[in-house]
Amino acid sequence: MKWVTEKLITKWDIRMLDMAFRVARWSKDPKKKVGSILASPDFRMLSWGYNGLPKEVKDDPIILNDVAEKNKRIIHAEINAINNCPRIPRGWTMYNTKPPCFDCALSIARNQVSKVFIPDIDVGSKWENTQRAGIKHLNDGGIEVLYFEGLLHLAHLAALKGEPWPWS
Ligand SMILES: [Zn+2]
User: Per CATH, the architecture of 6-161 is what?
Assistant: First the structure.
């Protein structure tokens, strides 16, 4: 487990995380809004995603409020970021507002993403096990995983980098 420190994060990483939290707010999921940004090493190419029903499926409140039905159908932010990406994001960095589940970790590794920024796992939630398995899969694949403890931690790192953190 590698906590992100001032040394391990750049002002551009802060900007990408800020963007991930903005994108998360676009999700129509009434319970959990997740954002993901993929950035090329020079930050000139970006892709983004949030959790949501497939584009072709209407954002039906009946589906979105039925947890079992929603979880069957919703596409996770990380998968949307990968699918929206105009090229295979080999060597790119992913910035997430939630740790990836195992299925997302499979796609992240398969697409040869190099580094992933995530908040700490949701201990005690039903997602904990799949997040742990996902992170293990990323580690096994040699992908660098950097944790931040939450928005306060990011705000602190942003201040150290002289970057504003508007969503804290
Ligand atoms: Zn997932």
Answer: 3-Layer(aba) Sandwich (3.40)
57, 58, 102: which is closest to 76 by C-alpha? 102
Domain ranges of the chain: 6-161
How far apart are the CA of 68 and the centre of ligand 1, in A? 15
* AA letter at 35: G
Please write the tens of the pLDDT for every residue from 39-89: 999 999 999 999 999 888 888 888 888 888 888 889 999 999 999 999 999
Task: Give 127-162 pLDDT, tens digit per residue.
Answer: 999 999 999 999 999 999 999 999 999 999 999 999
* Residue showing tokens 């997740």: 34
Quick one: three-class SS letters along 13-67? HHHHHHHHHHHHCCCCCCCCCCEEEEECCCCCCEEEEECECCCCCCCCHHHHCCH
Find the 108 Cα to ligand 1 centroid distance in Å: 10
Q: Is 159 helix (H, G, I), strand (E, B) or coil?
A: helix
Distance 104 CA to ligand 1 centre (A): 4
